[in-house]
Specification:
The protein is of the alpha+beta class. Helix content is 59%, strand content 12%. Helix 2 crosses helix 7.
Length: 291
């Protein structure tokens, strides 16, 4: 093989390598162009995504600001709600006190026999009979007397008598111990809320008495005193008008109050006049009215 042949072979190989390199470079260029297009698409997509991200950031910022505002508003509303509840509670308490104050001249009587189609006049006569003959009180004028509550088979409805003066009502309550152990119960005429408060405080009253303390109710308020310091202890004076007006009516002996726990409205039982006494009292009242 001479030099000319070798040269020709080298030229052929060089041309083959050149062609192969050109094909490779062309393929690489095609791939690079494809990558460039993909990168361009990704760049444009990122730009759009960045815009969306910026919008979302702004929305999140606005939402956080709105949340802070709503949180402050909720806190203010909660405070207003608490204040409203306190106001409603105070107004409810005041209404109950006023209701009890309006009832300060009233005496609630359970166990007083009731006749069919009883009138208010008949109720007043029956109440006056109990006051005069059983409690040994002088004739005390009544403004009114009526029955309250729904009728129950075999059980008389409670009677509410309104005295002209509160002192007369308090005197009747003090003399109520004369009828202890019988079938009539006397007590202050309190509003339903005050009666419920008394019911809720009965366990505390029993616990205090079990410890040897003096415990009694003034309207719906439970008063507890030590026996040894009873003389030296200052009197408990309520701030409400109802407590100031009705304090005298709360002087019920502990034993009498305990008896009334199982009875409706914690009323002290008083003895009912028998039929003959009731008829005699009615005749006497009729003759007195005629005179």
């Amino acid at each position: 093989m001479n030099l000319q042949e070798i040269k020709m072979m080298m030229d052929v190989q060089t041309e083959a390598y050149k062609n192969a390199l050109q094909v490779f470079v062309s393929q690489c260029n095609v791939r690079i162009d494809g990558c460039n297009e993909t990168i361009g698409d990704l760049k444009r997509s990122l730009e759009f995504s960045q815009v969306d991200i910026d919008d979302l950031k702004n929305q999140v910022k606005l939402l956080l600001q709105e949340k802070e505002t709503q949180t402050k508003l909720i806190a203010e509303l909660k405070q207003e709600l608490l204040e409203s509840r306190e106001t409603i509670k105070a107004l409810t308490t005041r209404c109950n006190e006023l209701d009890d104050l309006q009832r300060c001249n009233n005496l609630r009587i359970d166990g007083l026999p009731e006749v069919d189609a009883e009138t208010t006049e008949q109720t007043a006569v029956a109440v006056s009979s109990v006051l005069r003959e059983k409690l040994e009180l002088r004739e005390q004028p009544l403004e009114s007397a009526h029955r309250v509550g729904p009728r129950q088979e075999g059980r008389p409805r409670p009677a509410v008598a309104r005295f002209t003066r509160q002192l007369d009502r308090d005197a009747a309550l003090r003399h109520g111990k004369m009828l202890r152990g019988t079938n009539i119960y006397l007590n202050e005429d309190l509003c339903p809320a005050s009666r419920k408060m008394r019911t809720d405080q009965l366990p505390a009253l029993k616990a205090a008495r079990a410890q040897g303390k003096i415990a009694f109710f003034v309207n719906a308020k439970l008063i507890i005193k030590e026996k040894s310091n009873d003389r030296d202890a200052p009197r408990n004076t309520g701030t409400s008008a109802g407590l100031r007006q009705c304090t005298a009516s709360s002087a019920v002996e502990p034993q009498a109050t305990e008896r009334t726990v199982s009875q409706p409205d914690f009323q002290e039982k008083q003895q009912l006049p028998n039929d003959s006494e009731s008829r005699r009292t009615t005749r006497q009242a009729t003759r007195a009215e005629n005179h």
